[in-house]
Every structure is written in C-alpha cells, then in structure tokens.
Design goal:
Layout (H helix, E strand, L loop, with lengths): L1 H25 L4 H46 L16 H13 L1 H40 L5 H60 L4 H21 L1
Helix pairs in contact: 1-2, 3-4, 4-5
Length: 237
C-alpha cells in the first residue's frame, strides 16, 4: 500500500507525458501539430496527476485505517515486546531514546525495558478505553432514568453492574500503569549505573594508578637539575 501511494501519482503522470513526447517526435509534421500535441498532452498529464494524487490519498486513508484496526487487534490480546514498533507513535520521546540506548548498550536490559514498555502501552490503552466506556455507560444510565418504561429499572441495574465492572478494570489498569512506569525508571537507573557509572569508575581507577607515578618529563627535569647541580659543584671545587 505504501508503494502504491508513491507509484500512483508518479506512474499516472509519466504515462501521458511519455505518450505526448512520443507523438511529438513521431507524428508531429511541423510546429503547429507539435503545439497541438503538447497542449492536449499537458491537459492529459494534469488530469492524470490529479487522478494519481486522489488515488494516493484514498490508498493512504485505507492504509491508516488498516494500521489502526491492526493495532486494535494486537492490543486486544496484549502488546508484546516484538510488537512495539506498531505503536511507536504512542511512545514518549524519552522512552524512545532510552529504548535505543539500552538496546545498544545492554541487550538484556533492553529486552527488559521493551517488555515493560509493552506493559505500559497495554495498561494505557486499557485505561483509556475503560474510561471512555464508563462515560458512555453513565450517559446511558442517565437516558434510561428519564424514560418511564416498565423495564427501565432492570436496564439501569444492568448498566450499573457494567459500570462497576468497568470501574474495577479501570482501577487495575491504573495500578498496572503505575507499576510499569516505576519499573521503567528502575531499568533506566540500572542502565545508567551499568553504563555511565562503570565508565566513571574506570576513569577514576586510571587516575588513581597514575597519581602514584611521576610523569617522565618531571623525572627528566629532576635528573637534569641534579646533573646541573653536580656540575656546578665540580666547577667550584
């Protein structure tokens, strides 16, 4: 579908343009005929370009709808670490950056971060959908309460039970979201300790090892100063 989005305007525009050039080169007997071919060819090319852009827009709309439906189907069964790339638009910039750094620096921490990120995405979607369903259910309860039908009380009771279930799902989703976000912070901190802190420790150890050793230039200067002093003493004697 992506290839068709790009190929539709290009292909539909090049075809009449190429036909026009061939007609001008092969059949045009003079400037008037060439001008006629170019005029109608330009009109046909413009119409083809418009048709190609329209086709590309239609395909793009269908592609977006297909991706949205596919994401909903994936999320219905729970998002896994291997399916995060379908939901990159829902990731925070800091999460994208942390996932890239951890995956390149420590694959194990990167996998753990991806799994936790998938849990965070799942919890966020459940929380959003349950909140919307609770609002819709509350609106239905209000509408039924205004009716005077004989079975309105039974319907209202069923809707209240559904709302209670949605409230329970919503609360569990909030707990799951808080836990996932806390775990993400812990994994990021572990990655920082394992990467940046270890580099700091190595640098400090190098400095400590060099602190007990005098530079060669300083030793050479001391040696030259001792030789000069011995020479001055010899000259005085």
């Amino acid at each position: 579908m992506k290839a068709a989005m790009v190929a539709a305007p290009v292909g539909l525009t090049l075809i009449p343009a190429a036909i026009t050039m061939l007609l001008v080169l092969l059949l045009a007997s003079g400037p008037p005929a060439a001008a006629v071919f170019l005029f109608f060819g330009a009109i046909a090319t413009g119409i083809s370009l418009l048709a190609g852009l329209t086709t590309s827009a239609v395909i793009g709309t269908r592609h977006s709808r297909w991706k949205r439906e596919l994401r909903e189907q994936i999320a219905a069964y729970g998002i896994s670490a291997n399916e995060i790339h379908w939901f990159r638009g829902e990731l925070k910039p800091a999460e994208k950056r942390a996932l890239k750094q951890l995956s390149s620096g420590d694959p194990l921490l990167g996998d753990a971060y991806a799994e936790t990120l998938a849990s965070r995405l799942t919890a966020t979607r459940i929380l959003r959908r349950s909140t919307n369903e609770m609002r819709s259910t509350q609106q239905r309860i209000r509408k039924i309460s205004t009716l005077k039908a004989s079975n309105s009380e039974a319907y209202a009771k069923q809707l209240k039970a559904d709302k209670a279930k949605l409230a329970d799902i919503n609360a569990k989703a909030k707990e799951m979201l808080v836990e996932a976000e806390s775990r993400l912070q812990m994994i990021e901190a572990a990655g920082s300790r394992g990467g940046t802190f270890s580099e700091y420790e190595v640098a400090l150890k190098k400095l400590e090892s060099r602190a007990g050793e005098e530079p060669l230039a300083l030793e050479a200067a001391k040696l030259a100063d001792e030789i000069r002093r011995e020479l001055e003493e010899a000259e005085e004697e």
